[in-house]
Amino acid sequence: MSWYKSTLKNLPGLMLGLALLVCLPACKPHIENNGAFDLSGYIKKEAARLKKANRPVVKTVYHNGITETKTVHIANWEQELGLFIDADINKPTWRNNYNVTDEDSLLAYRAKDSTLKVSEILINRTKQKIRWILIYTKTPKNYLYTTTQKLVYYPDSLYYISTRQDVRFMGRNYYRVTGVIGK
Fold first, then answer.
1. Strand partners, 72
2. How far apart are CA 44 and CA 85, in angstroms?
3. Euclidean distance between CA atoms 22 and 17, whole angstroms
4. Which end of the chain is more exposed for a tag (fewer CB within 10 A), N or C?
5. pTM score, whole prediction
6. What is the per-residue pLDDT across 102-139, written as a single tens digit (0 to 9) for each?
7. pLDDT at 81 over 90
8. Are 13 and 20 contacting, i.e. CB atoms less than 8 angstroms apart?
């Protein structure tokens, strides 16, 4: 009976200790995030939301002067927005490779090293939501080809991908994809 009474006396302390054990792992920082905006996570959430909404998209594809426009339903939004997901800069090796500016509603990441694929990310936001995201990427110069891209995402309304590719001995290619998300 004395064991029972002493346990009851210490119950608040035991409960607090148990609560701390359960809650502390949740407070641990995410190791792979270098403090940058989680672009990949944000776009994946957007992809899931857009898939669930299943709204029509007026999609225009342009390639070297030829344009085609269709109204489609995107079945795999993660694949459709894959270039945005791939532009994520939350890798431990890139921890100090970006200058970060956070002023008013604009969050900017600019590469310090010109050999990085993602050269710039601009995010216009309010405290409640993202207004737009603009990303510039490029392949490092090499003997065979160079590629530059401009990616723009406006939640619930538009995504835009523009690519310029210079291929040695083959010339220049321009690609553009614009998706206007319907209501």
1. 57
2. 7
3. 9
4. N
5. 0.78
6. 988 999 999 998 888 999 999 999 888 999 999 999 98
7. yes
8. no
153 — phi, psi (to 5°)?
Answer: -135, 125
What is the Cα gyration radius of the chain? Answer: 23
What single string gives the DSSP state of each residue in 84-129? HHHT----GGGTTSEEEEEETTEEEEEESSTTSSEEEEEEEE-SS-
SS (H, E, C) 64-86: CCEEEEEEECCCCHHHHCHHHHH
112: nearest Cα among 131, 99, 102, 93: 99
DSSP string covering 37-59:
--HHHHHHHHHHHHHHHT--EEE
Nearest to 85 by CA among 157, 35, 133, 148: 133
Give CB contacts under 8 A, 24+ apart, made by 114-122: 114/140, 115/140, 117/87, 118/87, 118/89, 121/37, 121/39, 121/87, 121/89
Q: What is the pLDDT of residue 91?
A: 77
Q: What is the CA 73 to chain-centroid distance, rounded?
A: 22
Token couple for 6: 């002493």
Beta partners for residue 121, in sequence order: 109, 135
Q: What is the pLDDT of residue 35?
A: 60
